[in-house]
Give the backbone structure.
Amino acid sequence: MAEILQKDGTWVFDGDALRLTPGRDKNVSLFRKTLGELVVPLEALAGVSFEQGRKAGRLRLRLRDGADPLLHATGGRLTEPNDPYQLIVESDRYGVAAYFVDEVRGALLLDQVPGDPVDAYLVPGPSVPLSVSAGDGTASFDGEHIRLEWNWKTEDAKAAAGSRSLPLTDIVAVEWHPAAGLENGHLRFTVRNAPTKAPPKYDPNSVELWGFKKDPLMALVAAAVQARLPHPAGPGAADVPDARPELPSPPVASAEDDHDALLRRLRELGELRRTGVLTDEEFTLAKQAVLKRM
């Protein structure tokens, strides 16, 4: 057995599976703490590596494509602080980390685990029921139904549709995108026979995300739903149409248009602070990010 204990978390390998437990340190992200412990079977792994740095190093696990519903639902968009398959290693534990890597690699070779994609999930999704509030709504999932409820910040046209209850059997796809730059993020459910090109701000099957602390938690809902959908590489997958909306490519903006967009974003941030959505600290950080682009 190999084990490494750090402030960032604890990884244990017993020869058959890795048990990844997030640490309780204040620097450990809310997402990882909420996700909790992960058990990753050896056959789900494609590789392991350790990168040394001056003050700290990093252990990384690479999973086989299709093995984890979380990675599929998020499309590799989780940032490093939220990635459960990375562990920060303090410099005085570099030897332990190297030993850990050797043990896992040795087991992969001994068991002749292939690195090719899989056609079934090997890592379980987040447990249900779960409920997350972020952006303009709350997404809840009990294993059979997804419920979307709106808050006072939701666009009137979207809120007018009322709360949504979507049976899992009607869901074709789910995707989570974090906010990036001036673009807001979203949690979107694609409903069978009801594709839409509406942006998440107006789509009653989407929760719009604005780039705040709880946004990554919506990825847990996405992963829990994804884990219960047919595997994209499994039997019959070719018969399921790709119902994800084909959104038009954004037009190339001129410098003047981009400047106007930045000014609008500043006004939106000011309104969010005025109404209490943003704290003064969040407003200052967001404002600085916008000003850097002007």
Summary: The first strand starts at residue 2 and ends at 6. The radius of gyration is 21 Å.
